[in-house]
Amino acid sequence: MTLLNNILPEQRRGKLKALLKMGKTVRVLEAHNGLSGIIANNIQVEGESEGKPVIREFDAIWESSLTDSASKGHPDIEVVTFDSRLQTINEILAVTNKPMIVDGDTGGDVNAFEYTVSKLERVGVSAIIIEDKVFPKRNSLEAGVQQNLEDPEIFAQKIRRGKEIQNTDDFMIIARLESLIAGKPMEDAVNRAKTYLRAGVDGIMIHSKSKSSDEIFQFAQHYKEISKQLNLNKTLVCVPTTYNQTTEKELASAGFQIIIHANHLLRSAYKAMLETAQTILRDQRSLEADPLCSTVGEIFKTVGFLDVKEKDQENEQSKNIPVLIPAAGEDPIFKKTLNGKPKAMLEICGKTLLEHQVQTLNNNDLADITVIAGYGRDQMHAEGINILENPDFKNGSMLNSLFVGKKKMNNGFIMLYSDILMEDNIIKDLASRKEDIILVADNSTQYHEPQEGNILDFIIAKNQHKPARREIRFASENVVSKIGSKINPETASHEFIGVARFSKTGAEQLIETYNDIVKNYQGQFQESDDISQLNFTDLIQEMIDRGFLVHFMEIHKGWLEIHNEEHIALAEKSFSE
Ligand code: SPV
Ligand code: MG
Predict the structure, then answer these.
(1) Measured from the CA of 209, which atom of ligand 1 is nearest?
(2) What distance in angstroms lies between residue 20's CA and the mean position of ligand 1's atoms?
(3) Which residues lie near ion ligand 2 (Cβ < 5 Å)?
(4) Residue 76 annotated among the catalytic residues of the structure
(5) What is the pTM of this model?
(6) Protein residues whose CB sits closer than 6 Å to any atom of ligand 1
(7) What residues does each domain of the chain span?
């Protein structure tokens, strides 16, 4: 089932009347199940009208009794129950957004008809056409079949009761004249048309199984006169199955406003199925049948399977994003406490800093976690993580460590500084973001002075906003223009918290920029005195300068960095609370 045409009953029901009101000749194609419904709904061809190129498509769907019955292997004699028809109707409605006209057969007895009208109107059908024959009817196209016409007054009463029961003005009840099918004279059709119009019907369908369109053209002429007499302008409908040499244009100029191609998708599918089945039998394999078949891929595309595949992949990508935690450096502040252990092994409330981070990531279904260790490598451990080593951790910067995990970057990744703790929802929001490069940025920096001695990574947002009590800031505006620790805190709008996400494209841009810098530059670079000490924020600033778009995801608190004993105390307090 494709969800592309998803529409509510109230959005669809009035569409047929609206088309007629616009003076459009409504071109209708039969459908007998979801798949044929999608075709009738979506098919388009390029054509020409009055020398101009036009896109041609069907305007509405005919839910035919003949093809619904036949596709269930049944004759068209009202033996398929209304509930079964309703199931097909719903199946088609679920995958289409164009108006539907339902073939209501005789409409059954007058009480049953009220229920039929009510149920069809409720599901969003735009019109029902009922034929003036006695239940159970016989299909109109077969020669030599007894066709019993209903008493016109009884039929008119059915129309009245149906019109009274409908809830909206959108729904149409159209009467189908079977006089010509039953071999009655034109006069019988004309008189019946008058009776039904007086009963309040919304339109008349004149049916014919003649090979020529003469008789329906004749009727159309009479219809113009009746309409004038009664001062009515009700829709005229035809079903050109047997007289299909007549064009839609000719029918329209004779006065027909709805033209129904009533059974062609079922008939063509049947023919193709027979040929395919015979070919396989004949050749005792299916190779020769291939040209007769659509590809499986084409069917998958039509019914929405490829959309599902794409969503699955997107889901998978936002679930299984690799996380890189560069944690190789030696920490001077906690040197004593750590006694040779890396900082990630600092204990806070009975768990290491790294274990807290792993927990937050796992809580968000992120399990592909790689820590880049260096100092105290042998003492770095946590359950369910990969450890890579930066043997040169003493000489390089944190960025060197990050790029030790380069293989994990290819399809996009999250980078997490090793000394921060945060609430689960920060990672949850970050994982769902679609931007190529996105940094998590705290806006509380606007409201307080930085602590003495703390080196913070500041951000200046592209569209600087003064803090205001109320404002709307759209995500697309959240672009970083400057990042670095040497930015004057007073001009900063945010603080980078040490968490960033790169999409596949974002990671490619990051790697490309990094490789270029390392290869082609020396000495002082961005805020670093030497290229060997290049920071993450230097690289991001360079990317911004090169024109790459760097977004930020704004948060307000909900995280802690662990730079000194005071921070540990704060973290312990938060966890115990
Ligand atoms: C149908 O499509 O079921 C119709 C039209 O009622 S016809 O088969 O021509 O009677
Ligand atoms: Mg029918």
Answers:
(1) 9
(2) 22
(3) 65-66, 103
(4) yes
(5) 0.68
(6) 64-66, 76, 103, 139-141, 239, 241, 262-263
(7) 9-262, 297-576
Atom 2, ligand 1: residue with shortest CA distance: 64
Hey, is 97 helix, strand or coil?
A: coil
Give 476's contacts (C-beta < 8 A, 6+ positions apart): none
- Tell me if 34 sits within 8 A of 3, measured CB to CB: no
Which residue among 67, 100, 103, 237 has the greatest number of ligand 1 atoms within 8 angstroms of its CB, and so is best to mutate? 103
Distance CA 472, CA 60 (A): 42
Which atom of ligand 1 lies at the shortest distance from residue 241's CA?
9
Beta pairing, strands 52-57 & 44-49 = antiparallel
3-state secondary structure of 442: strand
Question: What element of type H or E holds 61?
Answer: strand 60-63
Query: What is the chain's length?
Result: 577
- In the reported structure, the alpha carbon of residue 112 is separated from the centroid of ligand 1 by a whole-number distance in angstroms of 21
The letter for the amino acid at 169 is D
CATH code of the domain occupying 297-576:
3.90.550.10
Relative orientation angle of helices 424-431 and 353-363, to the nearest 10 degrees: 50
Model pLDDT for residues 302-342, shown as the tens digit of each residue: 999 988 888 887 777 777 899 999 999 998 888 878 888 99
Cα-to-centroid distance, 95 and ligand 1 (Å)? 23
CB distance 440 to 555 below 8 Å: yes
Residue 577 CA, ligand 2 centroid: distance in Å? 72
CA–CA distance from 305 to each of 3, 33, 35, 77 (Å)? 10, 17, 13, 36
Give the number of whichever ligand sits closest to the CA of residue 260.
Answer: 1
Does position 413 have pLDDT exceeding 70, yes or no?
Answer: yes
List, as one string, the DSSP characters of 461-489: ESS-----SS----GGG-BEEEEETTS-G
474 pLDDT tier (thresholds 50, 70, 90): low
From the candidates 76, 132, 457, 538, which is the catalytic residue? 76
Which atom number of ligand 1 is nearest to the Cα of residue 69?
3
Question: Among the CATH numbers 3.20.20.60, 3.30.1490.190, 3.40.50.300, 2.60.40.1180, which is that of 9-262?
Answer: 3.20.20.60
